[in-house]
């Protein structure tokens, strides 16, 4: 998909929320897109006067809200075909009995279709960029992302040890884990008009030797890219680190071996104490908070304490078997409510000011961009940055009356309020129609692929009702 280098698109008469360092909001704003970047932003009359005569497209927003595209910093795109296979089961059944058999039987085509299906849901929830949490067949993901038209940091699921691994994974060597990721970087990094970046993946410390941890650290530093890792998800993980490495917990051990750096994106990080939060802050580690998935299996993450310590916290959905809903809009709502409720639970008194709307909106925009190491180009609406943004129609039953626009975006907005999405200067969705892929065709392919994959994996979903 090539960028329209000669295009000049003018959007005017909109409520523009920039999420820039000054938190500017234009009540009657205009924005100009030239090629793949924002050329100008300001008051609508001035923008129209200067650019409308030479524009290739003029869009009257009619008072709708224009804001940066959302960034989902933790999503397993190759798990989308597994939506519903692991509901209401314990973690070990979830992992060893459902997810690993599913993933280990995937083909490259499965990954491609799964990523397309996931991408549709991401686009409809306003996501212009996502961080793959670690999945199968990055080549299939890359094909899908190029077609979808959004931005991604793609990561291979990487494990070289641990109990319960499927046979075809248990034989993978550390050398393979490192070299295969270097090859992916060489092949796909900065492709699709620069929309795809390749990161290194560490699935979790329970499935990584020390050599894999250290060589991943060094390889990512050498190639100047990121590392995506599940960190301190469950108490058992911390206990295992204590028993096998003689250090109290995952974060403390990672600090000891020099893995807590600014290019690390730590997912979940639920079971961390005060000193571990200090280690994360000191290392400038980024944390992806996935409230729905955490509530389902992990617990309450100390997000307010992390933010207070200066940690850059963003939002993710996790994968479909962990959440079922790939809507970052839902995660915004949940993040604020859950963390308000946690204050009352842990401190014995309510704190309605915990994670206010402004903070949550920043988590899915500016903080998201910083978390994926892309803030110089995305995450806010500023002159010179990439033209990644969404248009929200607030004049629907979900958001009327519109009294406080920022609060309404976090507490009232639904996915159906998001009507248009642009990434890299190209319309991906316009007037609720996704332009880049045939949505109906993808849905049919996905249902068929999911059925075939579960049959190959030998996964049977028990009936929860007495069907007659």
TrEMBL record:
CDD domains: ATZ_TRZ_like
The protein's name: Amidohydrolase-related domain-containing protein
Keywords: Hydrolase
SUPFAM superfamilies the record matches: Composite domain of metallo-dependent hydrolases (SSF51338), Metallo-dependent hydrolases (SSF51556)
GO molecular function per UniProt: hydrolase activity, acting on carbon-nitrogen (but not peptide) bonds
PANTHER family the record matches: AMIDOHYDROLASE-RELATED DOMAIN-CONTAINING PROTEIN, AMINOHYDROLASE SSNA-RELATED
Species of origin: Aristolochia fimbriata (White veined hardy Dutchman's pipe vine)
Signal peptide from the UniProt entry: none
């Amino acid at each position: 998909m090539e960028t329209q280098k000669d295009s000049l698109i003018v959007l005017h008469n909109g409520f523009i929320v920039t999420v820039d360092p000054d938190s500017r909001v234009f009540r009657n704003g205009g924005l100009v897109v030239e090629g793949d970047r924002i050329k100008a932003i300001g008051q609508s009359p001035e923008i129209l006067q200067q650019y409308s005569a030479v524009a290739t497209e003029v869009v009257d927003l009619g008072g709708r809200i224009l804001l940066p595209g959302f960034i989902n910093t933790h999503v397993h795109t190759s798990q989308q075909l597994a939506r519903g296979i692991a509901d209401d089961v314990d973690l070990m059944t979830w992992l060893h009995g459902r997810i690993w058999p599913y993933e280990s039987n995937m083909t490259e085509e499965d990954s491609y279709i799964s990523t397309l299906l996931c991408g549709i849901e991401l686009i409809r929830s306003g996501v212009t960029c996502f961080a793959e949490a670690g999945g199968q067949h990055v080549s299939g993901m890359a094909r899908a992302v190029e077609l979808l038209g959004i931005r991604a940091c793609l990561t291979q699921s990487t494990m070289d040890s641990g109990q319960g691994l499927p046979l075809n994974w248990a034989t993978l060597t550390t050398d393979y884990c490192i070299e295969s990721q270097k090859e992916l970087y060489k092949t796909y990094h900065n492709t699709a008009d620069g929309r795809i970046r390749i990161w290194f993946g560490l699935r979790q410390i329970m499935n990584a030797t020390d050599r894999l941890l250290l060589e991943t650290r060094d390889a990512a530093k050498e190639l100047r890219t990121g590392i995506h890792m599940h960190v301190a998800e469950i108490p058992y993980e911390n206990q295992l680190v204590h028993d096998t490495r003689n250090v109290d917990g995952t974060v403390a051990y990672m600090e000891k071996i020099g893995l807590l750096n600014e290019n690390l994106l730590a997912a979940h990080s639920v079971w961390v104490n005060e000193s571990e939060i200090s280690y994360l802050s000191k290392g400038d580690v980024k944390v992806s908070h996935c409230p729905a998935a955490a509530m389902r299996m992990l617990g309450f993450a100390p997000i307010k304490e992390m933010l207070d310590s200066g940690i850059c916290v963003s939002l993710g959905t996790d994968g479909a078997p962990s959440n079922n809903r790939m809507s970052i809009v839902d995660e915004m709502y949940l993040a604020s409510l859950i963390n308000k409720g946690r204050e009352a639970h842990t401190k014995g008194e309510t704190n309605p000011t915990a994670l206010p709307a402004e903070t949550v909106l920043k988590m899915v925009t500016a903080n998201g961009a910083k978390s994926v190491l892309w803030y110089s180009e995305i995450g806010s609406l500023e002159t010179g940055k990439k033209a990644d943004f969404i248009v929200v129609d607030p004049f629907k039953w979900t958001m009327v009356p519109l009294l406080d626009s920022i609060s309404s975006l976090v507490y009232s907005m639904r996915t159906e309020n998001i009507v248009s999405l642009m990434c890299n200067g190209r319309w991906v969705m316009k007037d609720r129609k996704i332009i880049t892929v045939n949505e109906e065709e993808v849905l049919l392919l996905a249902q068929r692929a999911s059925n075939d994959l579960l049959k190959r994996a030998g996964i049977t979903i028990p009936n929860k009702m007495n069907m007659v």
